[in-house]
Amino acid sequence: MKITKEEVLHVANLAHLHIDESSIEMFAGQIGTILEYIDTLNRVDTKGVPPTTHAISLTNAFREDREKEHLDRESALANAPEQEDGNFIVPKVIG
Amino acid sequence: MEFEPVIGLEVHAQLKTKTKIFCGCSASFGAPPNTHTCPVCLGMPGVLPVLNKKVVEYALRMASATNCGIAHESRWARKNYFYPDLPKGYQISQYELPIAVNGHIDIEVNGDGKTIGITRIHMEEDAGKLTHDPGRPVSMVDFNRAGVPLIEIVSEPDIRSPREAGAYLRQLRAIVRYLGICDGNLEEGSFRCDANVSVRPEGAETFGTRTEIKNLNSFKHVENALEYEINRQIETLMSGDPVVQETRLWDAVKSRTTPMRGKEEAHDYRYFPDPDLLPLVIDDEWIREVKNTLPELPTPKKERFVREYELSSGDAEILTASRELADYFEECFREFPNPRRIGNWMIGPLLGLLNAAGTGIESSPVSPHHLARLLQLIDEGVISGKIAKTVFEEMAASGKPPDRIVEEKGLVQVTDTSAIESVVLKVLSRFPGEVEAYRSGKDKLLGFFVGQVMKETKGRANPKILNDILKDRLR
Predict the structure, then answer these.
(1) Which residues contact B254 (CB under 8 A, 6 or more apart)?
(2) Which of A16, A60, B135, B390 is the most exposed place for a label (fewest CB within 10 A)?
(3) Is B19 in CB contact (< 8 Å) with chain A?
(4) Domain that holds residue B213
């Protein structure tokens, strides 16, 4: 097993996902398989090869510091499940 | 046992660009909620962020001004966390390859110089603003601030006292303001500070367990919170308990730090390179260009003020606290080349006036040209130093030039000997007893006679001439 039940629960918790007790084992198995597949890469000798972060060799795409039109507020809030006084409303979080 | 505190500071400075870091939305403060948004900063599917070049330029200025090594190639990373202040579910930041590392700035505490190392400077986007409803189980989210550019400046754990922390922050703030990249407002949150602090027995090599303090929105809070936290950690250790590594919030009302709830601590940011943004490449030419266009910075300017104008270190420090203040001084100096007197007038009446009004030098009702002219009027003998104070107050109230005020209010100094003499004679005849007493040795009464004549002339008699006449007549 590549991944423990506790790790599955931790990741689910970070992703705000609720999973049934009964499916933990299944997910552990599936995630384990994926991780093993990824591990195939470890067989390649990468000594002296810098990590790739981008598949294309472009650099530096800039925009000038010029203001563009904003979305009107109705559109910005259109998908909000709840809104009030121009704000998105979310379940209470304490920061 | 004696303990030594070890402090490192993380500063977030909001950059004064017109637009956000990855989209063309306005970055200005104070607009109605959610009116400065677009699909990019709202995190809509399918959008692509494009880097604002000015953000890089500002970060380079800071890196250069703090003697950092600038990375020829740096990258963007996603910092993943769930909190409704960021609509994407991650913050775009820099992680493994920040734009600048290994810098330092010089600070001064009680006249002693010290160098504080800077670990790194990186660019990132700010988050939105949450308001919590005290009466209902909801929070309100405004994304105007989401995507506003920030630089984070991380210091080395080189700071050894709350006062050093304050001096470091003030210096850093002066630098960003000199560079014109951040307005440095702690109260409004455009310049924010988190502090990492631990204590260790004096002479120890290794660090103790640290805590992080948040919610520090003034220099005073930073110093008070550190003071409190250092003592708390020492007391904890002395009573045989360990210091727990945690984030604590400064409560300015109760003057104490309290632990943040555990949930917030369970961070696992899972940083990874942002595939939406290309690597940032900065060539030597760009770095040179930035270096060549840096303004004179606070410390060199202060040193020059001491050297060139022969001001005291303390006065020079005050006069170079901001670029605008220093410019004001130098503008005055061009018209009235007596630095010490300009300094006295600026540090005394002018700053007193501005502090009372709660405004900066840039909105001073008294222009440098007018202040210089006022000092010239004293030198030319048109008004006395005492009357100049009255004229200054009137200049502050009305913004009028000093010449006009002097003329309108009839404040021109009386230097006509016979005019002063006639007032002197009038006063002496009114106080024969005092005259007698003076002549029999009560020298101190001279001040009394001066006062009486000044009263008669509404303070306009030339003090030197008056003194001479009085002494002569009282002989």
Answers:
(1) none
(2) B135
(3) yes
(4) 3-289
Contacts of B139 in chain A (CB under 8 A): 89-93
Mark whether B381 and B464 lie in a shared domain: no
Among the candidates B274, B289, B304, a domain finishes at B289
pLDDT score of B263 more than 50: no
**Mean of pLDDT values over B370-384:** 90
CB contact under 8 A, B32 and A86: yes
Q: Are residues B102 and B228 in the same domain?
A: yes
ipTM at complex level:
0.80
Question: What pLDDT score does B308 carry?
Answer: 96
Count CB atoms within 10 A of the CB of residue B325.
Answer: 21
d(CA A3, CA A22): 16
Pair (B283, B321) in one structural domain:
no
Query: Which chain B positions have a beta carbon within 8 Å of A61's beta carbon?
Result: 50-51, 278
* A88 interfaces chain B, CB cutoff of 8 Å: yes
Q: Which of B19, B34, B139 sits opposite A92 (nearest CB)?
A: B139
Instruction: Count how many pairs of residues, chain A against chain B, have C-beta atoms within 8 Å.
Output: 131
Q: B28 in contact with A at a CB cutoff of 8 Å?
A: no
B431-435 mean pLDDT: 88
Q: Do B279 and B300 belong to one domain? A: no
| Whether the predicted pLDDT of B4 surpasses 70 | yes
What does the alpha-carbon distance between residue B461 and residue B468 come to, in Å, rounded to a whole number? 12
Window 49-68 of B: residues touching A by CB (8 A cutoff) are 50-56
Among B264, B289, B314, give the residue marking a domain's end. Answer: B289
Identify whether residues B300 and B283 lie together within a single domain.
no
Global pTM reads: 0.83
List all residues 6 or more positions away from B99 whose beta carbon is below 8 Å from its beta carbon: B56, B59, B60, B63, B70, B71, B74, B121, B122, B123, B280, B282
- Flag if A62 and B53 touch (Cβ within 8 Å): yes
Query: How far is Cα B247 from Cα A22, in angstroms, rounded to an integer?
Result: 36
pLDDT at B266 over 70: no
**Tally of domains within chain B:** 3
Distance from CA of B217 to the nearest CA of A (A): 15
Which of B 209-228 lie inside 8 A of A, CB atoms? none
Between chains, do B34 and A16 touch, taking CB under 8 Å as contact?
no
Looking at residue B146, its pLDDT comes to 97
- How far lies B113's CA from each of B108, B167, B298, B319, in Å? 4, 11, 14, 19
Residues B143 and B243 in one domain: yes
Q: Is the domain of B188 the same as that of B228?
A: yes
pLDDT, mean of residues B389-408: 91
**Inter-chain touch A70–B33, beta carbons under 8 Å:** no
Higher pLDDT among residues B457 and B7, named by residue? B7
Contact B96, B112 (CB under 8 A): no
